[in-house]
Amino acid sequence: MNLATGDAGTRFGSRGWTWWVVVAALSILAAVIAVRQFLAGSPASPSPEIRAAIDLVVSEASVRPARGPVGVLPSMAGPFVNRKSEIAAIVDTTRRCEEQGAVVVGIYGKPGVGKSGLARRVVSRLAGQYPDGRIFLTVGALMKPDDVTTSLLLTFGEDVGRHSGPGERLRALQAALSASRIIVVFDDVHEERQVRDALPAGRGSAVLITSRRPMSGLGLDALHGLDVLSTPDGIELLREVSARPEDEHDPSWRQIVELCGQLPIALHVAASLLRIRPRWSVENLATALADERRRLDLLRVGDADVRASFGISYNELRQPQQALFRRLGLLGPNLLDASLAAAVAGVPPDDALVMLEELVDAQLLEATGFHEYRFHDLIRLYAYERTLADDSDVAREAALSRAFDVLLAQATDHGARLDPSLAHDRLPVLDGIPALGSPAADSAHSSRSPARPTESFTWFGLHADLVLFLASDSTVARSASSAAVLTLAVTPYLLAVGRLEDALALTTSGAAHVAGMDDATTAAVEAMQGATLHRAGRNGEAIALLAHAMPILRATGQQRRAVRTARRLAQAYREAGDLRQAVPWYGVAFSGFVAEGSLVSAAGVSSDLAQVYKHQGDFDKAAEMMTRCVRYASQSLEPADGQDPDVIARSTVAWAQENLGAVRKRQYRTQEAIASHTASLEQFQHLGDTVGQGFAIRNLGDLAATQGSLVDALRLYEISAQRFQRSGASLGEAQALASIATTQARLLRLRAAGTALLGAARASNLPFAVAFAAKVGAYQIAAARRGHSQRPALPGP
């Protein structure tokens, strides 16, 4: 009989497994009695951990003998979703490396990610490859190396009492391993030393080691990091475990998966809740889990406890790492770095970076990039719980205030890259903030201060949410000065990326805080609020604020901010229909930009003026302004200080050429229009701007059509529609499709025209396409009058 595999052969007949249970139980009991008799007379007492292991053997042999001896592979009952690629990779490694010696594979991942289940599935797949048995040993945090050795000897049926010490027991284990072809799973290993000596030395066996930290020091043949499930796999797991009949397309399934962070243990618990609480709908559970204060309380059924699984890893941290972990939970679901970690922990950035990497190794933090980190959402909730329980109110407020100060300095530095007036028009409120490029400012960064606006866009993209999150905490952002600095530093980014609601909220709050401050700061915040209202289309309110701020900005020496406010004021007047007021303010803005050397901005003002003159029907003046726009924008492309031209400058030139071509087209100067659109197309291609390419190509199609080259125009319109579709610009796509419809109608391809027209309607809205439908209909009538026999009707919607 093979005790490792339970193969009783055929001589036991149909009752083979019954005999095996009896023999196994008696064998284990006899071995344990022998061990206890030996230890009773031995001068050296066993450790408490090994006694616990022996007691476990006795209890399992007497109460549940069908499980077999310690270490035999546990049941694989229960759902296990996907992981096909991970299983295939591990199976491939064992088969590829088995001739080189014992194969050792590590599987690591965050708590509850499904490492043990994956190991069991792999063992099941490889059972035929290792005929002498399969062993599964849960190591845990307390087992010592000798405890692992003794447990494995017991599994082999060895009389451990015959071996006088750890060395002899280890030699006996290696002898047993070398004589067998087995696969061993060391589950939940906490330290490499626990299992290092127990790894098989010879060929023919395999070992899987599951752990939270990567056990890279064991000379592994492969190391596999296990991540959370995909959303579809998470939904499949929920539905299979819960056995609920709700429609799989019910959005509540997806919501539960996302609220559980796609973590398998959390999904199992959530599914179990649906199973044991039949009166709860899937929507009910999703609503309950949406409350962050209750989420971890809900994710506990029986001994499956998400919070407890995190607690094991937390308790193994040293005290400084525990403190950092807790206080990072105060920063919400945002990106973290060494400067923020140093602030909340009150340690130097280099020390904070080391501790952050240790939290990553402990699977309590995720590395999203080089020195960039983020919490899994459920672990973040656990960290926040711990800081509420273990840190005082004073300690938490101090940590948040330090983090806010770091972010405020960084935001001011980066904001000055996007709005030069923040750096050049030094306000009294900025006296407490390190000056741009100073050593103090640089020390607030985890790296040197950036040199280009595009890098500042990247910084805000990563940190703006955290800045706003901390700013919303009244215990952190208490002062009027900090509210003013935030408004001036962060609003330009929010406006640039279209986060209008956030910009309105921030400027409204800033304006309320600065009431009663010095005139310079009040006017600067008022101008920023006016600019935001203008972007929101509230031009009347914007004009009132901007006009009030202008003379104060000039009087307080804020020349750069005054120039930009003049342009905003001109734009607001233009959009309100008051062109008489708009033109002189554009003149003020243009002169100011030229004086300070901001050529791109001067080009932008020229473009704005061109639109004004174009609206008035003065195409010669509009062309003059667009020519000036191209000239100033092109000058900004000249490399400075060895740096390549900025992407913003290139984009300005491209759009200036495009708008100049549109004006030339209205002047019927076709060849000049073609030259301008061709030049803009080349710039857009260099930038990778597919929306710009779509407009340039569509305008070239219009010019081809005016020259009677309808087939060429049609091809250009088709390419334009493809560019717009690729970039998701639905209105541009609709316009290109409508142009296709018109051209097809002119070519008397009426069915194709109708199809294109319907495409335009679907891409934007039906009323937009109706105007083009009239054109197509006119061509149909004209074709009918000319006696064309085939006049297929437009396809229905």
Task: Please characterize this protein's 3D structure.
There is one protein chain. The protein has 797 residues and is mainly alpha-helical. Helices cover 64% and strands 6% of the residues. It contains 35 helices and nine strands. The strands form three sheets. It has a five-stranded parallel beta sheet, with helices on both faces. Strands 6-7 form a two-stranded antiparallel ribbon. A hairpin with a 2-residue loop joins strand 6 and strand 7 (304-305). Helix 27 packs antiparallel against helix 28 (619-635). The relative contact order is 0.04.
Helix and strand topology:
Elements: H1 16-40, H2 48-63, H3 84-97, E1 103-109, H4 115-125, E2 133-140, H5 145-155, H6 166-178, E3 182-189, E4 206-211, E5 222-226, H7 231-242, H8 251-259, H9 264-276, H10 282-289, H11 292-298, E6 300-301, E7 304-305, H12 306-315, H13 319-328, H14 338-345, H15 349-361, E8 366-369, E9 372-374, H16 377-390, H17 393-418, H18 421-424, H19 439-443, H20 453-471, H21 480-496, H22 500-514, H23 519-535, H24 539-555, H25 559-575, H26 579-596, H27 599-616, H28 619-635, H29 647-666, H30 670-687, H31 690-706, H32 710-727, H33 730-746, H34 750-763, H35 766-785
